[in-house]
């Protein structure tokens, strides 16, 4: 991989950040407008909440919590699953869920069963990634006499690491 190719993702991110932070004729960037818009939405949402009767607040609280419970705990759904399938929202809810903290709530809901499953999955992945056959497969060939230096940098890194998975996730 050339230096230009390895720098391409960083350059793309830099160009993206430059574009969203570029100031317009009003001295504001796309990022500024997005923050303003989110601030206005937050203000409207809180005003909506403040103007609900106590009874309507209870109903809204119940309805939202019931859906989170169903999507996150009963169904064990992904963030998108809960937003789109359980709540019935469209893609515009994705960023709103992040801004209001729901993604943090969703990601913090991890059961002991989830932890055990993740530990087992990591154990299997680590065993697979420590196998020489896997490294050859990932390097693009199952022929040990191929040009390792030119075609198999992942295999060489694996060999340098003593045949250990250098990306290992500990349970």
Oligomer: single chain
* Structural class by sheet pairing and helices: mainly alpha
The overall number of domains is 2
- Give the number of DSSP strands: 0
In whole angstroms, the N-to-C terminal distance is: 33 Å
Q: Taking all residues together, what is the mean pLDDT? A: 80
Indicate the percent of residues in helices.
Answer: over 70%
Number of helices: 10
Low-confidence stretches: none
Q: Report strand %.
A: under 5%
Query: Main beta sheet: strand number and arrangement?
Result: none
- Along the chain, the helix and strand elements come as HHHHHHHHHH
Describe the global form: flat
User: Roughly how many Å is the radius of gyration?
Assistant: 24 Å
């Amino acid at each position: 991989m050339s230096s230009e190719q390895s720098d391409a993702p960083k350059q793309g991110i830099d160009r993206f950040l430059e574009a969203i932070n570029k100031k317009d004729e009003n001295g504001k960037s796309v990022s500024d407008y997005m923050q303003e818009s989110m601030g206005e939405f937050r203000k409207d949402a809180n005003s909506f909440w403040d103007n609900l009767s106590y009874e309507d607040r209870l109903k809204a609280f119940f309805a939202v919590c019931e859906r989170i419970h169903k999507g996150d705990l009963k169904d064990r759904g992904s963030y998108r699953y809960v937003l789109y399938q359980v709540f019935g929202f469209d893609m515009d809810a994705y960023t709103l869920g992040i801004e209001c903290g729901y993604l943090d709530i969703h990601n913090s809901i991890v059961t002991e069963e989830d932890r055990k499953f993740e530990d087992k999955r990591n154990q299997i992945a680590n065993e697979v990634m420590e196998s020489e056959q896997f490294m050859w497969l990932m390097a693009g060939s199952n022929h040990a006499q191929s040009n390792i230096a030119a075609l198999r940098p992942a295999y060489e890194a694996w060999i340098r690491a003593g045949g250990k998975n250098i990306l290992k996730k500990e349970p």
